[in-house]
């Protein structure tokens, strides 16, 4: 007897045999039991996900001698003949090779005749999107009002190519890609049936290479079984599918962390020489880093990992990376992938991406501590309590001396932070209203993504000026400014989140409130902005923008003193 491929031998013959697609199976079975089937169905989805198999099973269940039933019996003469493809009332039509209007007219002419031996005449039109426009037009009327004994099942991988008039006349079912677990369980059934021992890790490699398609998975399994000997081994699956062992990614990732770029380049060159596609390598790297992120999130997500098999060495590797670093790696590789698709020198792009990843600052590579220093936490709590007390006093119209006494205490504690005045002045020269507005619009969202202790440091801070290269954040308290400016990892996290939300790759500059007032006053005086505010001219070129600069045209000493004591938000200047 002629040998048949696995995907033909093990094609499901009932709904219970189908892997995944629970929403499709349940809806069709309920319709069969209630005898509420309609005249036209559209099955759409990726290749190898069970569209044609579901159509044949549905045709058998409609015409089964035991109907109405949720499953075909697969023992009666009707079910057996449909399985063999010899039943005259179940017509399979390939639209890819019969796309002309003449073939469709042949169907239309014969559809009015009653079925020969079954209850329904079922037309299964595969790859229906390949039909010509005239063929769709010819089919339209029949599809809308077919005879009571006719059922149309249209299957396609590209539903967007179908006319809206055709889609609107069908019940649509979208088939989804199968999960790796569904594919793994089906392959285990096949191997147990042929009594071949197997390594489960090898099946995971095949399932990943299949990319959600059961037919692709069974075809690859067929190849690996033919290549293997008495047992299906991991090395056999890696060789046939062109995949790479998780140990190779482990060694290269460890070398990236240690900035051993020579080893990384040697391994990449060896893989490319061995015939590995750089584009596929970048996808596998992204999957590997994604699995490390899942491993960091806890054992409950281990079942979702595609490339890594949980082992102590991988757990240690995951703990040695900060989440921001892994997200940075994935972002670099994803952008590189887009560039590689339009180039013939894909290896060069991947090498450049790995070099960029290896040069990630060491401060972001170290794993961030999950616990906060108790002394630092107590200090933050005390400062928050002091701020709340001061706010309550001000709201009640309390004595300003309390505020006056609070600031010397801060300076006596040794907080001698000096802001980068020169860099801030350069930012002010190029500051625009559009840039600061972008930063302020995303500020609340960035604060929500921070830890509570980090958000507390920025509670009394606000962005006051921004250019295309940097933005300035003013702090009410010197100690908060010092703590944020000295925490390079925190600053890097802030700039990354702002870049993700706004697209601005900007540097964050910190300055206490009293120093900001001095810098702002000097900048306005040196650039003559007071005069320009008082006497604006229409032909004047666009001036640098500082947040709330319309309120600082008058800079009398007593106003500046009041702002330094109470803060600008609590001082209102009224002209007599």
From TrEMBL:
It catalyses: DNA(n) + a 2'-deoxyribonucleoside 5'-triphosphate = DNA(n+1) + diphosphate. Belongs to the DnaX/STICHEL family. This is DNA-directed DNA polymerase. The lineage of its organism: Bacteria, Bacillati, Bacillota, Bacilli, Bacillales. It comes from the Bacteria. GO terms for biological process: DNA-templated DNA replication. Keywords: ATP-binding, DNA replication, DNA-directed DNA polymerase, Metal-binding, Nucleotide-binding, Nucleotidyltransferase, Transferase, Zinc. Transmembrane segments: none annotated. The keyword Transcription does not apply. GO terms for cellular component: DNA polymerase III complex. One of its GO terms (molecular function) is metal ion binding. Residues 37-179 form the AAA+ ATPase domain. It holds the Pfam family DNAX_ATPase_lid. Coiled coil: none annotated. Its EC number is 2.7.7.7. The keyword Membrane does not apply. It is an enzyme of class 2 (transferase).
């Amino acid at each position: 007897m002629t040998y048949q491929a696995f995907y033909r031998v093990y094609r499901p013959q009932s709904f219970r045999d189908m892997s995944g697609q629970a929403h499709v199976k349940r809806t069709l079975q309920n319709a069969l039991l209630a005898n509420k089937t309609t005249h036209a169905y559209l099955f759409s989805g990726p290749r190898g996900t069970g569209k044609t198999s579901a159509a044949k099973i549905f045709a058998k269940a409609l015409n089964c001698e035991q109907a109405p039933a949720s499953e075909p019996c697969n023992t009666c003469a009707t079910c057996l003949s449909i399985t063999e493809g010899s039943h005259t009332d179940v017509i399979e039509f390939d639209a890819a090779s019969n796309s002309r209007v003449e073939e469709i007219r042949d169907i239309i002419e014969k559809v009015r005749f009653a079925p020969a031996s079954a209850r329904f005449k079922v037309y299964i039109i595969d790859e229906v999107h390949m039909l010509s426009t005239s063929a769709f037009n010819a089919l339209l009327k029949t599809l809308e009002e077919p005879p009571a004994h006719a059922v149309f099942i249209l299957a396609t991988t590209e539903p967007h190519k179908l006319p809206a008039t055709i889609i609107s006349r069908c019940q649509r079912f979208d088939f989804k890609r199968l999960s790796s677990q569904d594919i793994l369980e089906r392959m285990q059934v096949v191997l147990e049936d042929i009594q071949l021992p197997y390594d489960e890790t090898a099946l995971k490699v095949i399932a990943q290479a299949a990319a959600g398609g059961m037919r692709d998975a069974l075809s690859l399994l067929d190849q690996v079984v033919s290549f293997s000997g008495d047992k299906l081994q991991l090395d056999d699956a890696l060789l046939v599918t062109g995949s790479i062992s998780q140990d190779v990614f482990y060694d290269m990732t460890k070398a990236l962390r240690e900035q051993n770029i020579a080893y990384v380049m040697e391994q990449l060159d060896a893989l490319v020489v061995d015939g590995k596609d750089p584009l596929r390598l970048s996808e596998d790297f992204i999957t590997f880093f994604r699995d490390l992120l899942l491993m960091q999130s806890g054992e409950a997500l281990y079942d979702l990992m595609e490339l890594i098999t949980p082992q102590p060495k991988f757990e240690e590797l995951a703990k040695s990376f900060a989440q921001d670093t892994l997200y940075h790696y994935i972002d670099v590789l994803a952008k590189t992938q887009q560039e590689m698709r339009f180039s013939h020198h894909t290896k060069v792009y991947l090498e450049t991406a790995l070099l960029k990843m290896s040069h990630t600052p060491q401060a972001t590579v170290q794993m961030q501590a999950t616990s906060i220093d108790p002394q630092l936490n107590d200090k933050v709590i005390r400062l928050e309590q002091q701020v709340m007390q001061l706010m309550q006093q001000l709201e009640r119209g309390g004595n300003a001396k309390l505020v006056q006494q609070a600031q010397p205490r801060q300076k006596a504690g040794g907080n001698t932070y000096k802001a980068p005045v020169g860099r801030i002045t350069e930012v002010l020269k190029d500051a625009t209203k559009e840039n600061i507005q972008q930063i302020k619009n995303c500020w609340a969202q960035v604060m929500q993504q921070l830890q509570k202790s980090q958000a507390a440091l920025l509670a009394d801070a606000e962005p006051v000026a921004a250019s295309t290269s940097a933005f300035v954040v003013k702090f009410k308290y010197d100690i908060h400014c010092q703590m944020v400016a000295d925490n390079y990892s925190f600053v890097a996290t802030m700039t990354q989140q702002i870049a993700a939300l706004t697209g601005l790759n900007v540097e964050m500059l910190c300055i206490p409130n009293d120093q900001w007032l001095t810098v702002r006053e000097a900048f306005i005086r040196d650039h003559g902005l007071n005069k320009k505010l008082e006497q604006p001219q229409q032909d004047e070129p666009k001036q640098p923008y500082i947040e709330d600069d319309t309120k600082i045209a008058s800079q009398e000493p007593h106003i500046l003193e009041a702002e330094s004591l109470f803060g600008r938000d609590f001082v209102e200047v009224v002209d007599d």
